[in-house]
Design brief:
The complex is a heterodimer of chains A (679) and B (90). Chain A contains 23 helices and 26 strands. With 679 residues, chain A is of the alpha+beta class. In chain A, strands 2, 3, 4, 5 and 8 form a five-stranded mixed beta sheet that branches. A five-stranded antiparallel beta sheet of chain A has the order 10-9-21-20-19, sandwiched between helices. The C terminus of chain A is likely disordered. Chain B is mostly helical and 90 residues long. Helix content of chain B is 67%, strand content 0%. Chain B has two helices and no strands. The longest helix of chain B has 50 residues. The termini of chain B are far apart. Classes of the chains: A alpha+beta (679), B mainly alpha (90). At the A-B interface, strand 3, strand 7, helix 10, helix 20 and helix 21 of A face helix 1 and helix 2 of B.
């Protein structure tokens, strides 16, 4: 018996239809599950296919000097990278690459077999390395590389002046992050804003859509303008190197700073290093002017004198020099030279002759509190506010802990620790009329009508003037700093030859010294204070023979660079006379340079009809303080001066002041006293 | 039979679909163009940086001094050989 074929057909059709619906339903349910329930996981998988993150590293800001000359710039370089999973023949390529780029073939082979998806093969390829890669056809003419390798464009920091100001500029690591000097100090400003952007990429990995809103936040690093003057810095470093080599010193430093604004014009240290090179010893990277402490030695004496003047003393007050030997707590303080057996000398002469005994006695008379408070006021014992990394504060003992011997030692700069920049800053206060400026390395644009830089007044203008005049004596023929004088300039300054503690014996070494000279030229603008310092010179180690001549050479460079005419362009009545005289001397010079220079100067004069500041004939006023009337008359010699005497005894004051320039024929008023001024 | 959708809806949908695709393609094209321009800008910037580096090296005081000494046989002036022009001291 057979079934109805029509019924059988409908049943089968129904079964197929149900099956189709079930399958379709399953597909729909599965699709819904995928779309709704597993959405996040799959979205992540999908996004990997076409989304990517672009890390935009902005350009690092350049570092320039006060005139805009580049100290640090960026250049594009190429680096070789690889994806080991895509590299075939790792051994062959590692052999080729190690031959071209150097390094161990085995190590490179291991890296090319690692499980990572990205490895650096060589960062910052040099041009010759790239050429070699092309020559060996590792890089094809079309620019293609073997599978798994590619070139990455990177930015490299370059220092075009090499070792000039290297301790100030510092350097960066391979990822352009500052690790030393200004590069580290102002890294946030120089680096800019690193931004990560969302981007869609195509099959070739090229971005097809970038988040434009986020892209707006990319900010390149900002430039940094330093107060340094690159040509001056170079010249100062050259002079420093020459002085270090000549004196066979271990190291040296020079600082030149504008005394009114605190702008540092040159900051030189030796040894130097080339920031473009790797593997530099740490000792060469130190900015010794701010990171190294030292006992300032006799350079502190004018500061102690200034503290005394602020306490009511007079620069003509006299102290007994104990004929060169002074005993405190069983220890004998002596003068630098055994023949220096001073009796009564004034504070001005204490500076002029650099008397240790009188400085020690002055410190003792001031007492621990006034001395330490005064030194603190001058900025010793605290950082200068420069902000540069590594600056130390130095050290002053608390007044209540100081014993008489320590107080006496501090009078001539031993038993305390300062930085070289602190000494320069204290002298800047003397030069600028008594204001303690904050040193700065960052140039701030100032309009001519801007108010002057604010600085705390620490001594009176009159006190500063008296110390300046005393410092002029220190560079006179009989002063310890006479070798600092240069040309017709009125150089004022003080030498310092400080003993150094021998780390082995824990006592002062009899062979190692740190010598220094701090000073300035008077009556020139801008007012520039200069500190020179040499560590452990050999041979004639006195600052007189080492640091003072270095000061002279540094000042010579500064006067030329900043066109500082000497105030004593004296003895000529007209600009024509002066120039004729100079040109005549120039013409007599055997070197070809001057014939060219003379021609150039003459041309300039014809074109511009320049006038030079002219003064009447004048002479430098010698110090008569502490002398008898007869001695004073002898010292004035045949200078054409008229002397007006008042009183009896020794000279306690004189007008005009010592060191000032006065016309011949001027009447010199001298006051003598038997007791006044004696302490 | 009732017409439940107007006849014009189909071309509108087609136009919108084509428009969307066209817009997307334009975005991609524009992004490529921006990328190309960015690369050109980068190249020019790199060229500028290279030139700046060259200028900095040429202006380097060390190089200038070396040139002055070797090529032009110049030497630092002695104090009496220096004449300051156009400047006054106090």
């Amino acid at each position: 018996m057979s079934a109805d074929p029509g019924v059988s057909y409908r049943r089968r059709l129904t079964a197929v239809a149900v099956a189709c619906f079930l399958i379709a339903g399953a597909v729909v349910i599965r699709a819904a599950t995928i779309q709704v329930l597993e959405d996040a996981r799959l979205a992540r998988l999908a996004s990997r296919q076409f989304q990517s993150k672009l890390l935009i590293r902005p350009r690092r800001g350049p570092i320039v000097d006060r005139n805009g000359d580049s100290f640090a710039v960026n250049v594009e370089v190429k680096s070789l990278a690889a994806d080991p999973s895509k590299v075939k023949e790792a051994d062959r390529y590692s052999a080729i690459l190690s031959r071209i780029l150097g390094g161990s073939s085995k190590k490179l082979s291991r890296r090319l077999r690692s499980k990572r998806s990205f490895v650096w093969i060589h960062r910052h390829l040099r041009e010759e390395q790239l050429a070699s890669l092309r020559k060996h056809r590792f890089i094809e003419g079309s620019g293609d590389l073997p599978d798994g390798f590619w070139l990455v464009r990177e930015i490299k920091r370059v220092y075009p002046h090499g070792d000039v100001a290297s301790q100030v500029i510092g350097n960066v690591n391979i990822d352009s992050e500052g690790i030393e000097g200004t590069e580290l100090w102002l890294n946030d400003r120089l680096r800019g804003e690193v931004v990560s952007l969302d981007a869609y990429k195509d099959a070739l990995g090229r971005p097809t859509f970038i988040d434009a809103v986020a892209a707006k936040h990319i900010r390149d690093g900002l430039p940094v303008k330093l107060t340094l003057d690159a040509p001056l810095q170079f010249a100062v470093e050259k002079e420093l190197r020459s002085a270090v080599e000549k004196s066979r010193s271990q190291a040296g430093s020079v600082l030149a700073m504008n005394a009114d604004t605190g702008e540092i014009l040159a900051m030189a240290n030796y040894p130097v290093y080339n920031a473009n090179r790797k593997g530099v010893p740490a000792s060469a990277k130190r900015n010794r002017l701010i990171t190294d402490g030292f006992e300032p030695g006799s350079t502190i004496k004018p500061i102690v004198a200034a503290i005394a003047l602020s306490d009511g003393w007079s620069i003509t007050d006299r102290l007994y020099g104990e004929k060169g030997k002074f005993t405190v707590q069983g220890k004998t303080i002596t003068e630098a030279e055994s023949h220096e057996q001073f009796e009564y000398i004034t504070l001005a002469e204490m500076i002029q002759y650099s008397s240790n005994v009188v400085a020690a006695k002055l410190a003792l008379k001031l007492g621990a509190k006034k001395l330490v408070d005064g030194l603190t006021l001058f900025g010793f014992g605290s950082r200068t506010g420069l902000g540069f990394p590594g600056e130390i504060s130095g050290w002053l003992a608390p007044p209540d802990k100081l014993k008489p011997l320590q107080i006496a030692n501090m009078g001539f700069g031993q038993g305390m620790m300062s930085t070289r920049i602190q000494v320069a800053r204290a002298y800047a206060a003397i030069l600028n009329g008594g204001r303690l400026v904050e040193p700065t390395l960052i140039m701030k644009e100032r309009a001519p009508d801007d108010p002057p830089v604010e600085a705390t007044r620490i001594i009176k203008e009159e006190t500063a003037r008296r110390i300046r005049n005393a410092l002029l004596l220190a560079t006179s023929d009989t002063g310890t700093g006479n070798k600092a004088r240069y040309g017709d300039y009125r150089i004022a300054g003080k030498t310092g030859t400080a003993q150094v503690v021998d780390p082995k014996t824990k006592t002062y070494s009899s062979t190692d010294y740190i010598v220094s000279f701090a000073g300035f030229a008077m009556d020139v603008e801008p007012k520039v204070v200069i500190l020179t310092s040499l560590d452990h010179p050999r041979g004639s180690y006195y600052a007189t023979d080492t640091a003072a001549p270095l000061f002279r050479e540094v000042f010579r460079e500064i006067s030329t660079r900043f066109n500082l005419p000497a105030p004593a362009v004296i003895g000529k009545t007209t600009a024509e006379d002066l120039l004729t005289d100079r040109l005549a001397r120039a013409a007599a010079a055997p070197t070809p340079v001057m014939s060219k220079a003379a021609t150039a100067i003459a041309d300039l004069i014809e074109e511009e009809d320049s006038l030079i500041s002219i003064e009447s004939p004048a002479k430098e006023m010698p110090s008569l303080l502490g002398l008898s009337a007869r001695e004073a008359l002898q010292r004035l010699g045949a200078g054409g001066f008229t002397m007006h005497l008042e009183g009896f005894g020794v000279v306690v004051s004189q007008k005009p002041d010592p060191g000032s320039f006065v016309k011949t024929g001027t009447t010199i008023r001298v006051r003598l006293s038997e007791k006044s001024g004696l302490r | 039979m009732k017409k439940w959708l107007p006849i014009w809806i189909l071309p509108v949908i087609v136009v919108m679909a084509v428009g969307t695709v066209w817009l997307r393609l334009r975005i991609v094209d524009t992004t490529y163009a921006i990328g190309q321009t960015d690369r050109q800008i980068e190249n020019v910037r790199h060229e500028k940086e290279k030139l700046e580096l060259s200028v900095a090296r040429l202006r380097s005081p060390g190089r200038l001094e070396s040139l002055a000494r070797r090529k032009f046989k110049l030497a630092p002036p002695r104090p009496e050989q220096v004449v300051h022009l156009g400047s006054r001291s106090r």
